[in-house]
């Protein structure tokens, strides 16, 4: 069987030229199907994604295109989709049905929490009723909206909470009623978003019918320059392959730059897989992964890895040392430009938050740049820690290399708006009174994940997606700004 | 006999008449009736994302509650920029659309996994979308909910049709006919997704096939 893959050769500036080199590699002739031997199962070279799905279905091996029933290890839902999901579950499985496993459902209110919108508040109440009725073990409830810290169970942004609470484990299958569920692929698991109906089905059966995706491989090699963050890498990739470049495909990230990243930076990369249309993203688990997971859960897990002979549908390679800080200009995550070439764009505000760019690492990065610059921001700079834990880190962790100061101290000295209650907040607009919602047509540099028209509220708002460094630099300049100006 | 007549038990309301007919928005085509939809089309372009289909501020509406389901429909495609789309999909003050056919370019439905997106379109009265390509979660949600048929075509229909033109989407013969010009365009087969949407969604289909016991 001839394998065909298209190699894209990166040139020195890091921009990948469009010259496609067709590589015809001849593989061994296909092994005819045979029943598993008594001493073991059929060995077929598979990618990590394929292996995880094979392990979770009744197949010894799977290949891209196969429609399979997969077992589900965890199902996550939040306040926007949870009520609808449970509504469908009750309608389809009946009022006396029980969820398939009350310890495998994680309910995380996070989207519209700190608002006076009655329906939004009602939706959290509905989740509480569901959690009680179905004896759901993990429900991160909030009742006192005036003071998030008075709610010991409340976490915040679902994808970050899933990781921090030890729900993300290598080799597992996770579905969530949110497109950024792919975030968890950083742990070497299959994780993707589904709608209410699919989630309702999983609630009742613990399984889902899905198609095995082919895998695109992205090799990120070299040493990360000090001005570059994971966000720059994923913007580079999305800008290269477009918002539909990975549709129905898995995206596997490998290379020395990836291996050198901590879990939060890896999550940033996998988080935006959906922005390229990707089904799921994966990063091979290693000691960094195991240390993070073991610090949060003692549950068993089994990491899997792509076979050396596995087939990848496309291969891309970059030397990260040659890349530059980027933005995704309005109005698409693939509208890639260097921060440098947008230096004439005057901005009105900066937003640092969300599952993509509101983790502890993101705030530490922004704080480092503010500290080095020793200047005041020129535009309102909104900070929304993703979870209670991130908020606590912002207020207690000394930022490396900043004379023992915490991020909160540095943000205050730089004139940023006081860090807000953890939630999704303005990343997706939300109810009108949402913190930092863009209610006027302004220009915003944001560490979030999407910049389609109206994403943060106003339809004519202009959103430049960027890394925490670039966001911080832009806040200081009052224009879209390459962080090297302050380093 | 045409699909719209079967579903509502009445003729689709003419644009000048305020809609007072309760349209059961899930497709639920009757057995034996052809999968053919005729009506006005609404043309959109590439990368129509879920925030444009149903802006996030309306996501507090829970689709499984009937009155909120209807309300979602009134906001369908309200996120489209006004300068590019001067004609609204659902007129101000109305709850239902005049355009049962939506035309798209590439990557229709990209962005969020929110099922509110195909639900809002279906609740508004959309019956079929014909686009070059779809984002995967949106495509999957159309089928699971049975809210509208996500047809694919290799023709760039968004360059050929204009909003308001009367078209027929014939999923038996896999053609779209533009009645304003007489032109016909090939569609890809809807395949296995067709019967699922005919039945009204994945659960209804599974029950009708005996895959799961009736609730």
TrEMBL record, chain A:
**An MF annotation (GO) of this entry:** 4 iron, 4 sulfur cluster binding
The organism encoding this protein is: Pleodorina starrii
Organism superkingdom: Eukaryota
Q: Which UniProt keywords apply?
A: 4Fe-4S, Iron, Iron-sulfur, Lyase, Metal-binding
**Lyase: present as a keyword of the record?**
yes
What's a single GO BP term from this record?
amino acid biosynthetic process
Q: What is this protein called?
A: 3-isopropylmalate dehydratase large subunit, chloroplastic
What InterPro entries does its record include?
Acnase/IPM_dHydase_lsu_aba_1/3, Acoase/IPM_deHydtase_lsu_aba, Aconitase_4Fe-4S_dom, Homoacnase/IPMdehydase_lsu, IPM_dehydratase_rel_enz, IPMI_cat
Query: Which intervals hold domain Aconitase/3-isopropylmalate dehydratase large subunit alpha/beta/alpha?
Result: 50-337, 339-478
Keyword ATP-binding set for record: no
Q: Name one Pfam family in it.
A: Aconitase
From TrEMBL, chain B:
Q: Note one Pfam family from the annotation.
A: Aconitase_C
UniProt xrefs under InterPro entries: Aconitase/3IPM_dehydase_swvl (IPR015928), AconitaseA/IPMdHydase_ssu_swvl (IPR000573), IPMI_Swivel (IPR033940), LeuD (IPR050075)
Superkingdom of this entry's organism?
A: Eukaryota
Q: Which UniProt keywords apply?
A: Lyase
Give an example GO molecular function.
3-isopropylmalate dehydratase activity
- Recorded catalytic activity of this chain's protein: (2R,3S)-3-isopropylmalate = (2S)-2-isopropylmalate
Does this entry carry the keyword Ion transport? no
Enzyme Commission designation: 4.2.1.33
Q: Does the keyword Cytoplasm apply?
A: no
Pathway the protein acts in:
Amino-acid biosynthesis; L-leucine biosynthesis; L-leucine from 3-methyl-2-oxobutanoate: step 2/4
Single GO biological process annotation from the record = glucosinolate biosynthetic process
| Residue span, Aconitase A/isopropylmalate dehydratase small subunit swivel domain | 101-147
Q: Which CDD domains match?
A: IPMI_Swivel
What Gene Ontology cellular component terms go with this record? chloroplast stroma
Q: What family does this belong to?
A: Belongs to the LeuD family.
What does the annotation say about its assembly with partners?
Answer: Heterodimer of the large LEUC/IIL1 subunit and the small LEUD (SSU1, SSU2 or SSU3) subunits.
Q: What is this protein called?
A: 3-isopropylmalate dehydratase
Q: Which species is this record about?
A: Pleodorina starrii
Please spell out the taxonomic lineage of the organism that makes this protein.
Eukaryota, Viridiplantae, Chlorophyta, core chlorophytes, Chlorophyceae
Provide the gene name from the record: LEU1S
């Amino acid at each position: 069987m001839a394998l065909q893959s298209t190699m894209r050769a990166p040139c020195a500036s890091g921009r990948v030229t469009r010259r496609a080199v067709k590589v015809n590699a001849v593989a061994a002739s296909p092994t005819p199907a045979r029943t598993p031997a008594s001493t073991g199962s059929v060995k077929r070279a598979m990618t990590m994604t394929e292996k995880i799905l094979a392990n979770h279905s009744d197949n010894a091996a799977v290949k891209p295109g196969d429609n399979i029933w997969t077992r589900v290890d965890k199902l996550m839902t939040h306040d926007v989709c949870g009520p609808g999901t449970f509504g469908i579950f009750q309608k389809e499985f009946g009022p006396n049905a029980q969820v398939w496993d009350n310890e495998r459902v994680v309910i995380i209110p996070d989207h519209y929490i700190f608002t006076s919108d009655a329906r939004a508040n009602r939706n959290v109440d509905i989740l509480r009723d569901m959690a009680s009725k179905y004896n759901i073990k993990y429900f991160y409830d909030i009742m006192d909206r005036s003071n998030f810290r008075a709610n010991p169970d409340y976490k915040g942004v679902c994808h970050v909470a899933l990781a921090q609470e030890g729900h993300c484990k290598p080799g597992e299958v996770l579905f969530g009623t949110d497109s950024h569920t792919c975030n968890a692929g950083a742990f070497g698991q299959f994780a993707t978003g589904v709608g209410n109906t699919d989630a309702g089905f999983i609630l009742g059966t613990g399984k889902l019918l899905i198609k095995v995706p082919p895998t695109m491989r992205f090799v990120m090699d070299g040493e990360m320059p000090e001005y570059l963050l994971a966000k720059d890498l994923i913007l580079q990739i999305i800008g290269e392959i477009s918002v539909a470049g990975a549709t129905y495909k898995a995206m596997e990230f490998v290379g020395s730059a990836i291996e050198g990243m901590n879990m939060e930076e890896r999550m940033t990369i996998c988080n935006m897989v959906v922005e390229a249309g990707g089904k799921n993203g994966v990063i091979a688990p290693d000691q960094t992964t195991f240390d993070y997971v073991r610090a949060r859960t003692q549950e068993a897990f089994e990491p899997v890895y792509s076979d050396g002979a596995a087939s990848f549908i496309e291969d891309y390679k970059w030397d990260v040392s040659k890349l530059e800080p980027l933005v995704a200009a309005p109005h698409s995550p693939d509208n890639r430009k260097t921060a440098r070439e947008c230096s004439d764009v005057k901005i009105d505000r900066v937003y640092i938050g969300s599952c993509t760019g509101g983790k502890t690492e993101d705030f530490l990065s922004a704080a480092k740049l503010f500290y080095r610059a020793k200047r005041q921001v020129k535009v309102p700079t909104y900070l929304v820690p993703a979870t209670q834990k991130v908020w606590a880190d912002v207020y207690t962790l000394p930022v490396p290399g900043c004379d023992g100061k915490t991020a909160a101290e540095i943000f205050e000295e730089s004139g940023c708006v006081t860090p807000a209650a953890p939630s999704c907040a303005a990343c997706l607009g939300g109810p009108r009174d949402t913190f930092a919602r863009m209610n006027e047509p302004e220009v915003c540099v944001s560490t979030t994940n999407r910049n389609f028209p109206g994403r943060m509220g106003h339809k004519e708002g202009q959103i430049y997606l960027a890394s925490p460094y670039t966001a911080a630099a832009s806040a200081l300049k009052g224009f879209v700004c390459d962080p090297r100006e302050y380093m | 006999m045409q699909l719209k007549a079967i579903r509502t038990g009445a003729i689709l309301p003419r644009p000048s008449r305020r809609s007072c007919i309760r349209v059961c928005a899930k497709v639920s085509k009757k057995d034996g009736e052809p999968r053919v939809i005729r009506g006005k089309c609404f043309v959109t372009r590439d990368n129509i994302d879920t925030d444009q289909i149903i802006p996030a501020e309306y996501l507090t509406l829970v689709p499984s509650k009937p009155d909120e389901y209807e309300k979602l429909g009134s906001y369908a495609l309200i996120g489209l920029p006004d300068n590019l789309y001067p004609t609204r999909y659902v007129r101000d003050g109305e709850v239902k659309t005049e355009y049962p056919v939506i035309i798209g370019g590439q990557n229709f439905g990209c962005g969020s996994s929110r099922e509110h997106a195909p639900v809002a379109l279906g609740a508004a009265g959309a019956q079929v979308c014909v686009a070059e390509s779809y984002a995967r979660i949106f495509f999957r949600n159309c089928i699971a909910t049975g809210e509208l048929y996500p047809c694919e075509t290799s023709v760039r229909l968004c360059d050929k049709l204009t909003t308001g033109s009367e078209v027929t989407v014939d999923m038996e013969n896999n053609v779209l006919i533009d009645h304003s010009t007489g032109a016909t365009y090939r569609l890809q087969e809807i395949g296995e997704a067709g019967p699922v949407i005919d039945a009204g969604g994945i659960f209804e289909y599974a029950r009708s096939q005996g895959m799961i016991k009736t609730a």
